[in-house]
Specification:
The chain has 225 residues and is of the alpha/beta class. Helices cover 29% and strands 28% of the residues. Bound molecules: 1-O-pyrophosphono-5-O-phosphono-alpha-D-ribofuranose, zinc ion and magnesium ion (MG).
Length: 225
Amino acid sequence: MLDKSRLRIAMQKSGRLSKESQKLLEQCGIKINLQQQQLLAFAENMTIDIMRVRDDDIPGLIMDGVVDLGIIGENVLEEALLTRQSQGDNPCYVTLRRLDFGDCRLSMALPMDKPWNGPKCLQGKRIATSYPHLLKQYLDKLGINFKSCLLNGSVEVAPRAGLADAICDLVSTGATLEANGLREVEVIYRSKACLIQRSGNLSKTKQSLIDKLMIRIQGVIQARE
Ligand code: PRP
Ligand code: ZN
Ligand code: MG
């Protein structure tokens, strides 16, 4: 069993944020022994446990109060928030700060040969995405009706596979879109990594450890600017 008195931090196990998340924690002086396949890692020099999970699971772990801190992309966080709200929940968390990595954007993309003259072209179209709530929030505001096709991965193959007319997916370098004959036509959400905390009171020792970490994070980020 995990020792609940130790501060629990969730970070992505493998993916766009994992290396930078690990680097940030290390630069804050946390000595972690991360063995590749391990879900849990213990800091050797501080009362901190690191949980390495799918990024998509991090917002829920925070909202359910299972971990104390999490490093997560705002896109994933916002989608999780909208999902829970749509289920009638009132999820809570605290954003401690935005971080200086994990830049990406959630964008609409179309097959190269399809014309684009603004979001109105999407009226009645089927759009593949892993972010149905962010997409709906955006298109609802514009009064555009659409059908969504929920895919948790390989969204970029949907148009070629005949599953959708367009996609709404994360873009960082644009290489994935290009490799799949798609072009980015509209950015709907800009995201960075952020540090979040579960709501509710933490023990005095955990809180002072967080205070100390926040000062160190500030220093690390400032030094990189
Ligand atoms: C995103 C997106 C694309 C890729 C785009 O996935 O789904 O696959 O990144 O990046 P590029 O523009 O640099 O080619 P990501 O790995 O971030 O998320 P996931 O693994 O959590 O789906
Ligand atoms: Zn993911
Ligand atoms: Mg992906």
